């Protein structure tokens, strides 16, 4: 829920909206410099997906499925690619939110889930 907001991707791309007349801080860049910025954005998405995998999905763990051992690196890559697919899916099927809608989403839905999780962690 937080990754698209942190990455400033749809629906939370309010500061750098591509469909606006001025395309945020990348307006003046073209050619190789723009390519570097685009690669940087993709690396940032990959880093966040890897971080989510490491923190919340158990990181790299070796598994044995049907007698075949799956190496930890392959397991980590599968988990990371599934997070990338989820982030891309959210980006593809949602429209951009207005500022008040994003604030309502994070202070309503996400804050309630965070408080429930905090209570659960305190009890367990």
From TrEMBL:
InterPro entries linked to this entry: ComplexI_Subunit1, NADH_UbQ_OxRdtase_su1/FPO, NADH_UbQ_OxRdtase_su1_CS
Keyword Zinc-finger: no
Bilayer topology annotation: Multi-pass membrane protein
Listed transmembrane segments: 45-66, 72-93, 105-123
GO cellular component terms attached to this protein's record: plasma membrane
PROSITE patterns: COMPLEX1_ND1_2
Main location: membrane
Assigned keywords, A-Z: Membrane, Transmembrane, Transmembrane helix
Subcellular localization(s) per the UniProt record: Membrane
Keyword Transmembrane helix: yes
Classification via PANTHER family: FORMATE HYDROGENLYASE SUBUNIT 4, FORMATE HYDROGENLYASE SUBUNIT 4-RELATED
Protein name: NADH dehydrogenase
Species this chain originates from: candidate division MSBL1 archaeon SCGC-AAA259E22
